[in-house]
Amino acid sequence: MREYIVQDDVLALSPGMMLSACAWMENEWSEALAPADKQFFRAKRFMDDILLAYVETPRWDAVRFVKDMQRSVVYQEPLKLERGHDGTFLETRFTIENNVFRYKLKNDNEGGEVKVWRYMHFHSNAPFVQKRATLTACLRKVHRMASDTDNLCVSALDKVAEFRRLRYPLGLLRKACAYLAATSGVRQWLDVRDTLR
Prior knowledge:
The protein has 197 residues and is α+β, with helices and mostly antiparallel strands. The chain has helices spanning 14-32, 35-38, 62-70, 128-144, 149-165, 170-184, 188-195, and strands at residues 41-46, 49-54, 88-89, 92-97, 100-105. The chain has a three-stranded antiparallel sheet, covered by helices on one side. A hairpin with a 2-residue loop joins β1 (41-46) and β2. The longest helix is centred in the first third of the chain and has 19 residues, at 14-32. Mean pLDDT is 86; it is low at 3-8.
């Protein structure tokens, strides 16, 4: 005889419902646009973030289009767009320089500012293995989300500075950088390690 156990887990439906409602509103809005307008912009949504790229040309009123987007003409009340930060999409900061797309991990604490506290203090009660794994996972994310070695170094130094403020030992940070160099084959991790004094 088999036993079946019914789990009392609650499935959160609201995110899926919100995304479906947004997709429907975006489709309705898109259908109402003139075909000529559609050739001058591209928009993509991932969850609740939208990335909009548009062309500035005398043949199209980009200023009006952007103002309409800012007024949230796409969405019905109570939904509305909120302005994000320029050059930021999801967890990525990006620039376009000389027609080259460059990007790195978004870090609200870059440049020494402390706006967000994301990780546990080294002297917290969590196991050492968990702290080391968190550090390594964060540095792997920095590595995966850097378009080039310059952005890798800048982003890595900013991320390491966050962990330094949380009293992670210098030796642990240096070992983590050496580990990333060994496992990724990217020498710049050794440069980051050597910067740490």
